[in-house]
Design goal:
The chain is an alpha/beta fold and 506 residues long. It contains 18 helices and 20 strands.
Length: 506
Amino acid sequence: MNFTPLARPYFSHIVARRSRWTTPGGAAQVQRRLMASLLKQGAKTRYGACYGFAHFRSYDDFASHVPVIEYEDIRHEAGRMVAGEKDILWPGACRRFAQSSGTSGGKSKYVPVTAASLRLNHYPGAAEAVASYLALNPASRIFSGKGFILGGSFANELADVPPGVTVGDLSANLIDAINPLANLFRVPDKKTALLSDWAVKLPALVRASLHQNISNISGVPSWFLTVLRGVISAAGATTIHDVWPGLEVFFHGGIAFGPYREQYRAITDPARMHYIETYNASEGFFAVQDSPDPSAGMLLLLDHGVFYEFRSLDGATVVPAWDVEPGQTYALVISSCNGLWRYLPGDTVRVESVEPLRISIAGRTNSFINAFGEELMVWNADTALAAACAATGARVADYTVAPVYTSCRTKGHHQWIIEWAQAPACGNEAFADILDKELQAVNSDYQAKRGGDIFLARLELTEAPAGTFTHWLASTGRLGGQRKVPRLANDRHIADQLLEIIKPNT
């Protein structure tokens, strides 16, 4: 039975409500009202009392008295919340926490997942994604089948989690807390979805979904690719649409989709497949694609429990959402109903338009390479890599990039460690030439430093055997459906670990 016509009016109403913040002046009005509401709740906490939330009457009051922070600044407070203390960063006790190691390694973060954040942000954000898809696709039959959600687990690094407290991937918390009625429309069952051992989980996911009528899938592109190939193999099929003829949309996020686009085209029927990008982090559901053109960016959700600010990359200025400039790249700053106040999630975003306010993810604040003044961002790398793959027929399974510093024997350059899904027919050296030219085309700083091979030599490409990145993730304790390989690093910590894995295989 197709329930889509019955559900469509509800989702159409969600799209209509966006006019409150997408029309001229709407962003300022909605965000100021939201800030006041958040501060009213924050005033009931110890953090709010420390900074005087109850006395703030304007954005300027808030911005001038509350510091911009990172997780290390509130690690102690978050730990107290995990231990069960009340009214620390958000009123009451918090019973759910999203464990996140970010994308740069180091100690795990424990991000509060409050009841308010589930009610006002995470679940409404998912509804916004479906609403966008239905608005763009009038012929959709999405509710004639089930959704396949690729989630994480409650595996965590804490030695002693108090009774009644759950710590794990955000997706595990969302699956665990969801209305039980939703389980009638999704696969796999909760027990399978929350398995922590990926070696056990992958075949279980294949078995659970193989004979289902799947209409939509949600997850990280790199991990879902593995699952879909497993389903196709188990069914003896050629494409996933041979197995799930009703599949019509992939709600994806976490990493850039560009390097994986051709791989998805190869295992789907492109005429039947659609893609919606989401910006759904451990700290909140922030944005969703609302245009058929993915290059237009994602609509920032300004009325879903998060107050947004944007810090210049040099850290000199911070502006609210209504004062951003199109074309500029900023570090995102949030204040949210999960108790994070002027908090840096660690992402940089590029403003694509201001009315409505659309953004694209440029990379991580700590995931870039500027070893030689080249200012290479993740979106530069993803764009250039996608273009090089399109030109050569190559397909990438995973990759990371690190600087190689100048020595008496070599000029400074970048080392790309790439695990191929399909190697370029032209060979690695020819591919490296093409990739280097594409990087110059998308990054003028890189192009300038490459001029004449004086300051920066052509990139070096190191091929990683199949399974290298999975091996590395497992060695860090980060193997799973929501874990990602850092794309760029300003040091060689990750690259050298990968090379140690590669050596015995070469």
